[in-house]
Amino acid sequence: MSASDIGGTFDRLWSELLPIGRTSAGGYRRFAWTDADLYARQWFLAAAAARGLDVRTDRNGNLWAWWLPVGWSGEPREAFVTGSHLDSVPDGGAFDGPLGVISALCAVDSLRDRGVQPLRPVAVVVFADEEGARFGVACAGSRLLSGALTPDAERALRDVDGVSLDEAMRRAGVDTAHLGRDDAMLRRVGVFVELHIEQGQALVDLDASLGIGTGIWPHGRWRFSFEGEANHAGTTRITERRDPMLPFAAAAIAARILATKEGGVATFGRVHVEPNGTNAIPSSVTAWLDARGPDQAVVDAIVTGVSANAHARAVAEGVQLAVAAESVSGAVEFSNAASARLHRVLDPVAGVGSVHPVGRVPDLGTGAGHDAGVLSSVLPTAMLFVRNPSGVSHSPAEFADRADCLVGIEALAAVMADWVGTAPVEAS
Ligand SMILES: [Zn+2]
Question: Is residue 427 scored above 50 in pLDDT?
Fold first, then answer.
């Protein structure tokens, strides 16, 4: 192959996907199982079909495009699986998710251009509902697959309009009678390598195009439901108010103070106010705390402290408060063996200067959750991060240079070739 061929393929795939779900402000609204998400999934089906890949939707709505070795019969096993997600956060950027999917397709093309005949299966995967922007649980597709999200818990999830995740999936043609941990699918996978845009600026500081993921901070979402009493903003005396906005405000301030004190991060980024009128004291405020830290003790201290502050202020205001945990994830360490293999393949490439000038691809921890993190409990997983000069993520400002994207594809192709280019271990 030549790099320019893959560059052309990258440009083409990118320009096809770019308009889907983009708002006039330039951000993305590809919420899981909405029309925009379904169009993006259709795009993937077409791109896979154009490559002659055999696409299957698994029991949990995730898409798998298989490239099987010539003469392979029976179920895939020891597969090299790579990919990411196509859904987005509200007004998200273009790269978070799609870069991993497009890079995976380009890596397949790259191997084929070079005449590589895989001895083990390859799959390009699109995990459903990674961001959790619509139903509140991040990585729903991979959590269902791994059993971390049970079908009963899945059936309880609703979006703000009251549509259940189950209903949304059924509308999209997924038979939800068979949701849940899928051991038959998991047995096919030898390793899952997710390429993702970096969601910070560590690689900029290191002057490196690419990093290898070491792990993911423990993190989670907690729903704070404040119940007060709606009333007139002009005629209700201050002493007679039960205003849920005040304990919410106390919680938001506490989140900043405690995160700073404990060395983690904490954010209230989503709030629902009822009735949401300028001249009305709210009846209820529902807000979601996102808390993360380098270890579990930090996250626990933040959440406990924010809850205590919110409760104290709620009592003072005559407001009821309920705090519920949603999609909580413990610390993740990626497979040492898989990461070591990535280093073994990619560090020599670094030696020639195309990835990293000092001869070793840098290791990178992250505060962001990923399907590779969820699946690390049931599969060997690894991650590659591509430099993001803006350091900004979950925003239209998220960006990667084309040259770095092509380095990422080259690296992913090298790792893929390493995995599938050796004789498979015979089943005993
Ligand atoms: Zn992502």
Answer: no
